[in-house]
Design goal:
about 400 residues; Immunoglobulin-like; seven-stranded mixed beta sheet; 1 helix; disordered N terminus; binds calcium ion
């Protein structure tokens, strides 16, 4: 009996098996109806950089796939354009623009233009589940002349530590380098927290020595934190070559100097021609960094015919930005040379022999206050003179301007 049942069941099992087989095959053929990689084409087989528009490489993806696109040179060296990029099935082909340049492993050469020669363009797709793959190969000829890539030669970023605090000591960094061929240059600095500070943005530069100055601040002038920053100087040409150099620069003693004239008095208010008026000015450092100052010292006497830049053989002429002084001026002043504030004095509470550099320069430290006495002998034939005082940073501006106005009557 057992045997008879088996004879009946066996053909049935075989029939079910056959039906199941065709069902599975039918199902599979339904899945494979769309090939993983459809048509692959390029707009041309020849490419001349600088003359031709970039090639458009078009490829169809029938099923979800990871796509590699690369170039092989005559020696079999592989240059990846895309590596394991996921691509979804799509009705329209994907397009990759190719300008003849490829990325490289050299940290100083981000992309380089392939030299003229014969190449093979490969588009390869493999199914996301790893069970199917396909690839197409197209011949590619790069034509024209060998084009010298840009370089960043003799790059120097100096000094390596800067202190952007407007004391004229290492406040800025200079980027100097030489370009052997014209290039478009970008310079940026990255903060320890990842913030990018642009220094130079897409500047066209010729084939010669270059120099840029960074003030250690954001482009809007706001201050950055002290720390170690990474600079990147990048040069690219119109052929897809991109080179870069990187290094570190340190920001220390960052700060914004701030000071205020807290009191001033000009006296006496009635003098005879040839007599002296005295201005008393008290200045306090209200900021967090020292401010740098230089002469003439408190007590120095001018005549109305003089200006700070020409007295004492010019030793007090305005120097590179950063030095602070107090000054006095009058309304109708139209004298030559530096027209504004012809009478200036150092802001120091100490006699010049006790200055940080005796008789040369000193600092007014945060919280410190200095009283400056200035003298001006009136030789100007004006009956009424409207004097005022100001706080000056040489070459930068007037932090307080036209304050403490006092009318002086001059008799003669
Ligand atoms: Ca400084």
């Amino acid at each position: 009996m057992h045997d008879r049942v088996w004879r009946t069941v066996r053909p049935l099992t075989a029939m079910i098996g056959i039906v199941l087989f065709w069902f599975v095959i039918g199902g599979l053929s339904g899945c494979t109806a769309a090939p993983i990689l459809g048509e692959v084409s390029a707009t041309a087989e020849r490419y001349n950089p600088g003359r031709d528009t970039p090639l458009a490489i078009s490829y169809e993806i029938g099923r979800s796939a990871l796509v590699d696109i690369y170039i092989l040179d005559a020696n079999g060296q592989r240059y990846d354009l895309r590596r394991a990029q996921p691509r979804a099935a799509a009705n329209d082909p994907y397009i990759l623009r190719f300008d003849g340049s490829v990325p490289t492993d050299d940290p100083q050469v981000l992309r380089r233009l392939l030299p003229p020669g014969q190449y093979t363009l490969v588009v390869a797709a493999r199914a996301a589940d790893g069970n199917d793959s396909d690839e197409r190969r197209l011949p590619l000829s790069i034509e024209g002349n060998v084009i010298a890539p840009p370089e960043i030669e003799n790059l120097m970023v100096w000094p390596p530590v800067i202190s952007p605090n407007a004391d004229a000591i290492d406040d800025v960094a200079e980027f100097t380098y030489r370009l052997p061929v014209s290039a478009t240059v970008n310079i940026e600095v990255q903060a320890p927290n990842g913030e990018i500070i642009p220094v130079v943005t897409r500047e066209e530069e010729g084939p010669y020595e270059q120099r840029h100055v960074w003030n250690g601040k954001r482009p809007n002038g706001s201050l950055l934190e002290a720390g170690v920053y990474t600079y990147t100087v990048r040069a690219e040409d119109g052929f897809g070559n991109v080179v870069q150099r990187q290094g570190q620069i340190t920001l220390a003693d960052v700060g914004q100097p701030e000071a205020r004239i807290v009191y001033s008095m000009i006296a006496p208010q009635r003098v005879m021609l040839g007599e002296v008026i005295t201005v008393t000015i008290r200045v306090r450092n209200t900021g967090t960094v020292p401010i740098r100052t230089y002469g003439p010292p408190s007590g120095y006497e001018y005549t109305t015919d003089e200006v700070f830049s020409s007295v004492e053989d010019g030793i007090y002429a305005a120097q590179a930005g950063g030095f602070w002084r107090v000054g006095m001026d009058w309304d109708a002043n139209s004298g030559g040379g530096p027209k504004r504030y012809p009478y200036r004095w150092a802001i120091s509470p100490r006699p010049p022999e006790e200055w940080a550099k005796p008789f040369v320069e000193d600092f007014l430290y945060p919280g410190e206050e200095a009283e400056i006495i200035g003298r001006v002998r009136i030789l100007q034939r004006e009956t009424r003179m409207g004097f005022y005082v100001g706080l000056i940073q040489d070459g930068v501006g007037f932090f307080q301007d036209r304050t403490g106005r006092t009318i002086i009557d001059v008799g003669f």
